[in-house]
Amino acid sequence: MEQENFREVIFQYQSNITNEEVNEALWAEVINAEDGVFMLYSIPLHGFLIAPGDIFVAVEEEIEGETHFVFDHVTNYSGNSVIQVIIPYEDNSTEVEQTLNTLTEKNCHIEKISDNIILLAVPFEVNYQEVKQVIEALAISEMIDYAEPIISDKHQEDIEEAQLNN
Q1: For the chain, N or C: smaller number of CB within 10 Å?
Q2: Cα distance between residue 122 and residue 5, in whole Å
């Protein structure tokens, strides 16, 4: 990631995990600096309804005496989805990570936040049902809990189509 093409943008929202106000700094690629247009690069930790690849506008604001770009609104959704994976038992973390890493072969992006939290970005072109099967297998075996804070329309259609074919 070349620093000059990326900026940290502050996202201010109510966390769906902690139910508290969050100021989360996420990396975004500068699309048009003059108009404050960015493309999200990072995966939101706390479940904000935006996914990597989404195009958004940010405005400059002063926070604690420093000027920052602060998220304003999304202008174009990428069709990518986000899954939050929680590993409740540390004993399972290595096996879960190895299983989730197989999803990188499907071009999914995995971001390990801690020993028990992993974020997964699922690109638009990936069949979401294939990813969901891997996640569900881990959940059924009680190795993980997970949340799907943002599932794109295309990925929702992947799930519905798989249900129709069963």
Answers
A1: C
A2: 23
